[in-house]
Design brief:
about 230 residues, alpha+beta, Alpha-Beta Plaits, 9 helices, 5 strands, globular
């Protein structure tokens, strides 16, 4: 069965996932993580992609972004791959790609901004790479919780709805992260990005589908219904 094209829709929020090939490390130490984020910053600026959130682990990373054009997201990932892989291969005297095939992406309704950022902030803990969101340096938790300002982050309009003041927004954000996600939320976010689906209510998906020739939701299991002429 032919693979569906990756989702990339201008002006919409995207959750992006890229893994290291065969589970290999793509960041081995602090210098690597910093080089990766620097490459991300440059690639995003060059391809007109707003970065709203990220989490970078040793063997994979997640991004939350909005591309200004349909070509912006593929351009970002290509530029990031070229720049960072060149750095990594030179540093470790290796050849070849780091990545496990194509990146994966899902288009999100804006109301999923906070759940997906929470998914990012708790991701290192789920993978055994941090004791708590505040203890993991390579995500946007510190930025949104008010601990530091990350200049590479573009604030999405949905974030402003969390409160009328910076303190109120930070408090609402921290409360959401502390509560975490239930198994249903974790499952739908993971399934959407791995499958390459749109994540939102029926009206959101239907509106997107009007302007996309690509199927945006998972097919229902089983055989198609048999239609009998009457």
């Amino acid at each position: 069965m032919a693979r569906l094209p990756r989702l990339s829709i201008a002006g919409h929020l995207h959750h992006v996932l890229q893994r290291g090939a065969h589970g290999q490390a793509v960041c081995r130490d602090t210098e690597d993580f910093e080089a990766f984020l620097s490459a991300l910053d440059s690639a995003a600026e060059a391809n007109h992609v707003a970065v709203h959130g990220y989490v970078v682990l040793a063997d994979h990373f997640h991004l939350l972004v909005t591309p200004a054009s349909a070509e912006g997201l593929p351009g970002l990932m290509q530029a990031l791959g070229r720049s960072y892989v060149r750095y990594f291969n030179r540093r470790y005297e290796r050849r070849g790609t780091l990545w496990e095939g194509r990146f994966k992406s899902a288009v999100l309704q804006p109301r999923y901004l906070l759940p997906v950022l929470t998914y990012f902030d708790t991701h290192a803990l789920r993978h055994g790479e941090g004791a708590a969101p505040a203890d993991y340096a390579w995500s946007t938790h510190a930025h949104y919780s008010g601990a530091r300002v990350d200049k590479r982050i573009a604030t999405h309009p949905a974030y402003w709805g969390l409160g009328n003041t910076p303190f109120a927004r930070e408090a609402q954000y921290q409360a959401a992260v502390q509560e975490g996600l239930n198994s249903v939320q974790l499952g739908e976010i993971t399934e959407a990005v791995i499958g390459g689906w749109a994540l939102g209510d029926a009206a959101f998906v239907a509106d997107l589908q009007k302007n996309s020739a690509r199927r945006l939701t998972k097919k229902a299991p089983g055989r198609p219904a048999l239609h009998v002429k009457t």
